[in-house]
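Worked example 2:
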Amino acid sequence: MSSAPLISVKNLSKHFRTFKRREGILGGLVNLFHRDYQTLKAVENVNFEIAQGEMVGYIGPNGAGKSTTIKMLTGILVPTSGEIFSNGFVPFRQRADYVKTIGVVFGQRTQLWWDIAVIESFKLLRRIYDVSQRDFDARMELFDQVLALRDFLHTPVRKLSLGQRMRCDLAAALLHNPPILFLDEPTIGLDVVAKDHIRQFLKVINAQYKTTILLTTHDLDDIEELCRRIMIIDRGTLLFDGPLAGLKERLLRTKQIKFILRDGEQAPRLAAFEKSLAAYPANGALRLERLDELTCRIIFDRKLISSADLIRQILAAVEVRDFLIEDEPIEEIIKRIYAGEDPGGGIPVPAAQP
């Protein structure tokens, strides 16, 4: 018998009433007496459940409704309609008690005190969340091991780099060991090293404490690195909810083989091989690109052409030093979903907007 979901969302909607502002002084005067109102459906009839310990990626283009959903899940916004039950609470009704059981990180906002040292912010949060000294010390030790906080614990928050601040914000959000962590663009603007610190930290927290994580991001490397399940939202409507692997299997169109020639003497043989590809039975389903003097890439239709057959032809035609087989970038799959291609998964896709 399966346990109840930790987060349950049913028919969730959030509408904002706005009015169209007229331009110029005359338009401003008219606005004072007559306004043309319109309703913006930021989130419309969204349904999903998240089990304890899941790491779920929540993605979509700008303005799709991701942050609005997160704000309703954290109790910041009141839904227009629908139901949310999160960790046994209705977030916007029981917010004072509920927020003690969650952690939240918004990529461009900090919950740390700007002008005091990081460690002083942590000590204040320890008292706010009533964390014992023993638990505080144990968690700080773990956070330092994975996030390398020790070097800047005594630095004022305002003097931290963006990557350092994000690491501190993550530690602050998890200081009271909440069962749920909401992350809204946690790696935005970070360099490769900082992103890796954060990804490794989230893996450790999820494995050690079974922390449930809902992650919104535009960085699809975050999703592929961390999440087995993704939800895709666009124009307020949920387009897909299911395994990332299943999405890729259904919508993956191409694969690519990158190979490095043994030496420059392979150039004539490569030219002959390139000509032979034009007569390939699946003509138009593959193309060869030269990336530099020795490196080439063949992009091909995975449904029409066998990877093994193509590799055998490459090895018969030229001498190579190395091979790399890659799938189509997930960005291309996501773009096609935004454009209206049906991702499957039992969720209807609205028609693409002109």
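The CA atoms of residues 59 and 232 lie 5 Å apart. The chain has a mean pLDDT of 86.
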